[in-house]
Structure formats: C-alpha cells, structure tokens
C-alpha cells in the first residue's frame, strides 16, 4: 500500500481516529471541577484510538515520502520526518500520562489528576501543537516545490500552521485543525496528480 491511494487511506484513517480521540478526551474535566474527571469511561475509548491513529500517521508519512520520490529535498524531508515523529511521540506521551493518572485510586488521586491535567495540557498545547505546525509548514513547502498536490492546499497549510504557532490559549479543539488539513490533503491524493497529468500529455 505505497501508492497515492495508500497515503490517502492512511491519512483519512489518521484524521478520523485522532479527531474522535481528541473529542472524547476533551470531555476530561479540570481538576478543580467537582464530579467525575471523565464520565461514562469515555476516556478508555479516546485512549485506545490513539495508537491506531499513530500507526495510520506513520504509514501516511512513509507513503508521502515515497510519492515525492526523486523530487525530495533532504533538508525539508528531514524536518518533515522529524516533526512528524516528535508530534507522534508527544501524542503517545499524553495518552500514557492520562491513562496512568486515571487508573490511580486513593487519597492522593486528586493531586495525581491535577498534575496529569496540567502536564498533558502543556504537552499538547505548547509542544505537540508547534510540532504539528512545523510538520504542516514543511509539508506545504514540499507541495509547493514538487507540485504533487494543488497549491491552495499548501497555502491553507501555511495559514493553519501560523494559527497553531501563535495560539497561546489552552483551547482543546485547536489541534483539530491539524487532522482536518490532513483529511483534505488525503482526499486530494485520491485525485489525479498534476505531475502524472503532465507526463501523460508529453
């Protein structure tokens, strides 16, 4: 599954799984709010979706690099791969912290939950958010340089990346812009490539 269709399928799966996970985990209450931290055990579903989203994202990265092929620039390819892996590592770290904190039972559980809430908030809203922005910038630059996808998609990536870079408030849903852009990119991958069109007309 190394064809453009493979990248599209992997990207769509990643976008849907990550969006669903983020929406489920967004229901986690703040530590100072009375009541259950996350009702109805929805966090179990949210956490269990993250590994599968990560697998799909790794496949997406690999197939995109394969599609770029000889047009690949080593500098941008390195930043593209590095930022993607760092984003994924932070996403897994957040999931592990949340899972460990929610499994704690006892008198000190409120302190553990408070620590986990603030730690995961910083990881997601400061570090992972910026890595997603860097990934989008490098990917958009690769799209512009190679022309494998429409330019408007690259410009949209620049715009969303700027939003992610300058966002300083802890808004749980801002990271949804990243899988949304990957979803649009994946859908466009199902369409004929401009490069293939040019080669057919020659």
Describe the secondary structure blueprint for this structure.
Layout: H1 4-25, H2 42-68, H3 74-102, H4 109-146, H5 151-166, H6 177-189, H7 194-201
Outline of this structure?
This is DUF4386 domain-containing protein. With 202 residues, the chain is mainly α. It has seven helices and no strands.
What are the salient characteristics of this protein?
202 residues; elongated; membrane; DUF4386 domain-containing protein
Structure notes:
The structure is a single chain. With 202 residues, this protein is mainly α. It contains seven helices and no strands. The protein has one domain. The chain is elongated, with a radius of gyration of 18 Å. The C terminus is likely disordered.
Percent helix range: over 70%
> Whole-number average pLDDT?
82
- Can you tell me the overall shape? elongated
How many DSSP E strands?
A: 0
User: What is the N-to-C succession of helices and strands?
Assistant: HHHHHHH
